[in-house]
Amino acid sequence: MIKEPEMREYNPQALEEKIERFWKENDIYNKVKKARENGPDYYFLDGPPYVSGAIHLGTAWNKIIKDMVIRFRTMQGYNVKRQPGFDMHGLPIEVKVEQALGLKYKKDIEEKVGVENFIKKCREFALTNLKIMTEQFKMLGVWMDWDNPYMTIKNEYIESAWFTLKKAWEKGLLEKNQRVLHWCPRCETALAEHEVRGEYKIREDPSIYVKFPVEGKENEYLLIWTTTPWTLPANLAVTVHPEYEYAKVRVFFNGKEEYWVIAKALVNKVLNEVRVKGEIVEELRGEELEGLRYVHPFLGEYPRQKEFRERHEWAHRVILGEHVTLGEGTGLVHTAPGHG
C-alpha cells in the first residue's frame, strides 16, 4: 500500500501548526522536562523583552537564539531552568498610556486622571501586551515556562531590586556623582541612549568663533570655532594638532589691538569671515602650544568651572590631538569631554 505524502508542497505555516498541535496534545514540553529533572541543573536567565507592544523582528530573533541554546543544553542532559521574563514598567509604557488617554503634559496625570488610576492603566496595558507576546513566542515554537514568568511589576521582584540596592549600599559599592545624561524636558526625566536613537535630524544652526584669553597675556587669545555653542559651559581643553603650523596674528578688533592664535593655513579665511584685518607676528608648531593655559570665557558664570580650575592643574590647557583638521574652523578645537 502506497501512502500519499501529507503535503505535496511545503507549507511552513501548516507544518508549524501541526507540530505545535502535536506538542500540545501530547504534552511534549512537560515530558521533556520530566525526562531531564534528575540531570545537572542549568539556569538560563532570560533577559526580558519590553512589553510596549507586539514582538518585532529583533525580539523574535533574540528569543529563537535563546531557544536554540536551551534545547541544546536539554539534549545534553541538563535540567534547564527556563523561566521567561518581561520588563513591564518604565517611560515607554507611560508615554503609550498618556497617548491613549489624550494627556499632553505630565501634570495632566495628577490633575486629570489621578496617579493611582494612571498606574492601574499602565498595569493593564503591560499585562495585555504580555499575553500578546507570550502567544507570539509560543507560535515561534519557543519552549519556556510560560505559565510562570518573572514580571518586573510584581512586588517580590520590586522588593528584590531594593534588597540588592541596599546590599550594594551596605558594601560601599554606590557612589554619588555627576554625569551628562540625555534628558527629556517634557517627561522631566533622564533617557536611556536607545530612547533617543534615531531621533536626530539635519538642521541648520549658527556656528560661532570664541576667544579664550591666554592666562597672563593681556589681549592674547586662542580662537576656537564651534557649531555646538551650547557645549561651551563644559569646556575643559583646547586641542591643536602637534604637527600643524600656528600663527599669532595681530588684529584690530572693536577699536583695540589683540593677538589671536590661529592655524597658519586658516588665517586669511578666518579674518575674512570675521571681517577684520591682521598680520602674522609669530609662527610656531602645535606641539609648542601644549600645556598653555587659558581662562575659561564663562568662568564667572559657572562656579563649577572655577572649582575645576582650582582643583585640577590639567583643566583649561592646550592639549594635542591628531584628529584636528584644517577643513573648517581655526585649527583649535574646543574640547568638552562631557559631551562626547
Percent of residues in β-strands: 15-25%
Number of DSSP helical runs: 10
The gross shape turns out to be elongated
Write the H/E string, N to C: HHEHEEHHHEHEEHEEEEEHEHEE
Terminal Cα separation, in Å?
75 Å
Question: How many domain modules?
Answer: 2
Spatial strand sequence of the major β-sheet? 7-8-11-10-12
What's the CATH class label of the largest domain? Alpha Beta
- What is the name of the CATH topology of the largest domain? Rossmann fold
Structural classification:
alpha/beta
Identify the CATH architecture of the largest domain: 3-Layer(aba) Sandwich
Look at the structure and give the mean pLDDT: 91
Low-confidence stretches: none
State Rg.
Answer: 31 Å
Structural description of this entry:
- This protein is of the alpha/beta class.
- The protein has two domains: 12-157, Rossmann fold, CATH 3.40.50.620; 208-339, Valyl/Leucyl/Isoleucyl-tRNA synthetase, editing domain (Isoleucyl-tRNA Synthetase, domain 2).
- Helices cover 36% and strands 19% of the residues.
- The chain has ten helices and 14 strands.
- The protein has a five-stranded mixed sheet with strand order 7-8-11-10-12, covered by helices on one side.
- The longest helix has 25 residues, at 115-139.
